[in-house]
What we know:
By secondary structure, this protein is mainly α.
Amino acid sequence: MTTVTLTATATCTAGAAEVVSGTPEKPGLPQPVNRRMLAERAGFLTTLVQQLASWLLASVWTDQHLDQLASGVDAEGRRLPSKGWMALRRLGWIPLIPAGLRVPDRVLRAAGEETARALRLALHRRAVTTAIVASWPADPRRRTTDDWVLLRRHLPAGTDNATIRNRTRQIASFAARHGRLPDGFTELETPPTIPAQVLLAAADRQLVRVERLDGNRAR
């Protein structure tokens, strides 16, 4: 059984900001933040989330970890949550905090969500790669009719020819360098680059509060 999770991300622009001491429940007096300080603080947060997610992704970039995520259940057989960061926490995959740095939990959530989305995308690429390796033809540059039938039998539904062509070239390049086919997806492909962004959907009200302005806009 395969579980497919769809996500949508809307971008947001920082135009003005205030620093408010205290908590959302008991806020202090707001103080305006100039654009330079806003850019510095947003940049620090973005870089921190990117680093935490990159470190976590590298630590779980093995076929064994991908198998565990693809199973859709944790070690006790419970179904994994649909939210990426919650699923990784259920599996015990948590970003490593650098020594001397205090990182709020909602920032760790954002980093976990980045990692989870990268891993879930990798699961699809791995399924395509596994199918191509399992049905590797005598001549990968020109598959026979029988080769295509065998390949389509293994491929995930909806895989397009461009993806097949690109993955075949990637595997053929590996085989030319090493004299053999890759032993698993993570030997063929290194961890992808985590984008410099903060997925606020994974945070709570202590990091972000959303106010709906109308049917198309939120602040």
